[in-house]
Amino acid sequence: MNDEREYQKRVLIATSLSYVIVILDTSIVNVALEPVAASLGSDIAGLQWVVNAYTLTFASLLLSGGALGDRIGAKTVYLAGLLVFACASALCGFAPDLQILVVARVLQGLGAALLVPCSLTLINHAFPVARQRASAIGMLAGCGGIAMAAGPLAGGLLTHLLGWRSIFLVNVPIALIGAWLTTRVDSVRPANSDKSMDVAGQLLAIVALGASVAVLIEGAKLGWQAATIRVGAVIALAGWVAFVLVEGKRKQPMLPLGFFRSPVFSASAFVSLISGLIFYGLFFLLSLYFQSARAWSPLQTGLAFLPLTVMVAIGSFASGALNRTYGAHRLVCAGFLLYALGFAGLVALADDAPYWRIALCFPAVGFAAGVISPAATAALMTAVDKARAGVGAGVLNASRQTGAAFGVAIFGALMSAIQPIDAGIRVAVYLATGLSLLGALVWSVALAVATRYAGSDAC
């Protein structure tokens, strides 16, 4: 028993480190957007690509990362992902121009896509009991919450003291420590002996996601009626249709559409997408708002986000206990209602309100973001067979990262296209509030259907 607990502790430490750098790299970049723009010469669209090159690659390759881990071993793929992430972070730190920085961010997304789903697979195997697994996932999410909380402040401090390049270079030693710890984790036997990969599905996913986000980012700059944007929209739509058709016919698809027959699985993926969209979209918008409209420094911006990000960490750690006490059904619904309440209060942004009025809304948004992700993750992983845990984890994280990419693209487009800036902010806040209510409704209906007709005990 003690040996098992020691092993579980070792796995949890190793996987938590990887999750920390993935989340840290998402939140730490936002407070350095203005210095990056000044150093490399970039407009809002360029900054959107700096953020989205990472999240877009992360989202589009997550499914393949999970499937690859199921085929050749989660530990092997996880370790490769950490090393790729470390090298890419170093390249980001030394990037001479915007183009190289975006390419390096793509490589960071590749590394993250390999390691994140495999970290959940390692946890799934190390914690076979559902209740223990939920607690472990909650701890993992809690570490991510700490990284989210520390990211803006750490980014502000590093940028203030050492310049924006240091926010990427800080990932290198953390990743290398994580790689060393991973060598002490036992290998997990591949769950799927079929070594074939769904190349067609992967390429179509990249085309569909990339074209969709490109249209949203560039549409505000080039004009929504531009021929390039129209062609991009057609390519995006054709890519999504072809992706669904191809995945429905393959024997070993990258995205098994049969997973979505489970209401719990479908609802978990959907609410993860919505949560990522509204949280990261508003996070990007607020970062630009504080630094551009209010002329705050990166350090001031990082400090301004503390009431939001600290509550993400608290919510993540509290999610496991709240899930056991109240169940995922009530917890996720309550989280989205908190989202709606917090976002509704942020309408004050459009009126150039004092900071304290804005900060009053942050705890509700942060706590909601913290509790939703681990609750939805635990529910989804319970609904997936252990042999397909890597693919299941990939779907969940792909949903969240796809939402984040769309959020940055959509809210950035609103900020660029709707002037004056207070009008764009008001539309963005109303959109976030409406999507929050939609998330609560979809989750409630899906879980009710699962309980009534499938006898699901996932909650």
UniProtKB/TrEMBL annotation:
One Pfam family recorded for the sequence: MFS_1
GO terms under cellular component: plasma membrane
Residue stretches in coiled coil: none
Keywords: Cell membrane, Membrane, Transmembrane, Transmembrane helix, Transport
Protein location: Cell membrane
Entry's Gene Ontology molecular function annotations: transmembrane transporter activity
Residue ranges constituting the Major facilitator superfamily (MFS) profile domain according to the UniProt record: 11-451
Membrane topology annotation: Multi-pass membrane protein
SUPFAM superfamilies assigned: MFS general substrate transporter
Domain of life: Bacteria
Family statement: Belongs to the major facilitator superfamily. EmrB family.
Protein name: Drug efflux pump JefA
Name of encoding gene: jefA
